[in-house]
Design a protein that fits this description.
6 helices, 28% helix, 185 residues, alpha/beta, six-stranded mixed beta sheet, single chain
């Protein structure tokens, strides 16, 4: 049986893609519309948990939009469900990501901060990581594409596109946290 990776609020599955592509893991992307983290019952044998609750309600950049009580309630319910799943599982690692914002007040100081350019993708988007995990090795490049917001153009799903995990970071995080074979003596 393959070790299970849960990708909570995983959207496109970009963060868990290296695990899926390796062929050695059972990757489960728990995201709407197929799965709702608020009702998901995790299996017992989870190796790792990647959680990316929607950032629109928590990010500093979202402060320019009015948030209703209902929107905030739903955002906190999703965050709470991610945390409950983490508590319910016997994991080897877990990580929760979100941009700079309100989660710093809720979860405390992040374990680490990163920009995509720290891991080979030439743009910036400062992101926080909380959890228990091995920190990935960096591969810094010049952020020649800036914040990349201008590349998205006018789009209804700007937040969705901007929230996709950078491939360089996803690969580095996988390399730092994947199962390693025990060396033979």
């Amino acid at each position: 049986m393959k070790p299970i990776i849960l990708d909570l609020c995983g959207g496109t599955g970009a963060w868990s893609r290296p695990w899926a592509e390796s062929g050695g893991y059972d990757v489960r992307v728990i995201t709407l519309p197929d799965y709702d983290v608020r009702t998901y019952q995790p299996p017992k044998n989870v190796y790792g948990i990647l959680a990316a609750p929607p950032c629109t309600m928590f990010a500093v950049s979202g402060n320019r939009w009015k948030r209703t009580k209902e929107q905030m309630y739903e955002a906190y319910a999703v965050l709470g469900a991610c945390i409950q799943i983490i508590k319910d599982c016997q994991w080897h690692f877990w990580a929760l990501e979100n941009p700079i914002g309100k989660l710093n007040d809720i979860l405390g100081k992040p374990v680490m901060y990163f920009n995509p350019c720290d891991f080979g993708d030439p743009w910036t988007k400062k992101t926080c990581l909380w959890g228990v995990f091995n920190k990935p090795d960096t591969n810094p490049v010049e952020p020649t594409e800036g914040s990349k917001m201008w590349l998205l153009g006018p789009t209804k799903d700007r937040a969705g596109k901007r929230s996709i995990t950078p491939p360089g970071f996803a690969r580095a995080f996988f390399e730092a946290n994947r199962i390693r074979e025990t060396p033979k003596r």
